[in-house]
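ugh finaly. both done.
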Amino acid sequence: MKYILPAIGSVAAIALFAFSSANQTAVAVEPASETNTFEQLDLFADVLARVRTDYVVEVNDAELIENALNGMLQSLDPHSSYVTPEQFKELQVTTSGEYGGLGMEVTMQEGFVKVIAPIDETPAKRAGIKAGDYLTEINGKSILGLSLTEAVKQMRGKPGEDITVTVVRKDEEPKDITITREVIKRVVVKSEVKDGIGYIRLAQFNDKAEEGVVDAIKSLKKEFGGKIPGVVLDLRANPGGLLDQSIKVSSLFLDGGEIVSTRGRVASDTQRYNGEAGELAKGVPLIVLIDGASASASEIVAGAIQDRGRGLLVGMQTFGKGSVQSVIPLRGGRDGGLRMTTQRYYTPSGSSIQGTGITPDIAVAAGPDNGKADRMRREADLPNAILNENLEAEGDEEMEELVIDYPAEDFDVEQDYQLQKAIALLKGGQYASKLADLQG
């Protein structure tokens, strides 16, 4: 199976991702020294034996080996890891879009559990959990030092049960927030008419994404009496998901043609993914909203729309998750599997966004400019992040500084400045001229 992980570290929404049924192919690689490899394996066995006999407390062999496997794989890049049999089951649960818990996506950052984003219409969202929050305690007990899987396991439980999480937020005192667990039936697509323009919010690319966007477009057509004057597709804080869903969603706005390509270790290991003909939203002016938490599958859609000249991207630089992971079962999955980065993906123009992200056509900030360097952590900031090969070839060049439109200092963030700007572009007739300028 091939996966495009939602970006941001080892994301625990684990809801993630997967997609093409292409067969795995093995590439023969000449070992540097078979004798040396066996010597290193003997060293590992010796260290394991010493820990078992001499460590100050008794240890669990299975946990030691699992941690060793993760250490090896995570030294490669942030998205490669060992997948336990239990995590295999989690992948199946979360791609179906329904599970028990609080409704937030989290990652591990420097030993802390960090909220990527609360999921729309869930207990976490209603309780006021925000993107960027750090969770330090659950029911009064510290979770510092726990693995991400262990922390997530503590957050899940029977629907109806209360859980209290301690939240640390920038420039604020830690506070306890009590949340009632629910069965999370994730609503990934919402649509409505905002100020005379169609608005579609896509929260994640799970297996219901395309179906939801199709229903949204049809609903908007009906509401507008057949012709939609313009659509804002909101992919902000969308961490990604299923590759096939990103292609299907792109196809709704693009009449066939290439959406994305993937390339592996050797030049011949290239696959191109084309959209289906029959663009559902044909001729509808389109703006895609993006930000620093738009990642992976979101970047595929945004990159395809931008490269093909189909619409404008408004917002901020995206996360920069441009790699594909393959999950290789061990003993048919009975021993879990290896989740390894095997390919990078490319936009239709052949650009890799790994570590750099996608630059909006019109840069608009969500809040006022406070003069602080507090941008969101992105792919390039993660430990052992794979470099963009274009930068490797050309040397580290600083990205062109964006000219960003900031709202006024007294602007209420709840009014959504980025969305206001997108609607203004579509309603004011500026959309066509801006798009024409960008197309040259």
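ok and the 2nd:
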Amino acid sequence: MTGPERIVQRGLWFDEMTVGTVYEHRPGRTVTEADNVVFTTLTMNTQALHLDAAYSVDTAFGERLVNSMWTLSTLVGLSVAQLTQGTIVANLGFSEISFPKPMLHGDTLYGETVIADKRESASRPGEGVVTFEHTGRNQHGDVVARAVRKTLVRMAPAS
């Protein structure tokens, strides 16, 4: 007796990634005050601009800002199910990280990733190096984060 077909969610194998393809990651993630305070305190970031509402009122922003590391972490996280779930070997590094506009409590982060480059690994057969260019936008379409990330990704297993 056979059962129903089973499909396990996974990211893309190296072979399935095409340079220039843009992946839009949905749904987005709305950041709450609790998210910001918990992330900021868990990571020992005592910056008043993230934690102290009274202090933040007198800054150029007039209110607390979401920790930019939350924004970066969540931007990468938004891409995982679609691109690297179960297919990544390792993150190799990040570069060109920028935060052109801050995230505020209640903003929603949407992510997109461009496959910027890929090459087979010279030292690790069956794996390849993929360069992702991640862009995060808020609900208004404003760019709030950019990052270039190199990863080591598995090639599709032989059937």
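summary for the 2nd one i guess: The chain has one domain: 14-154.
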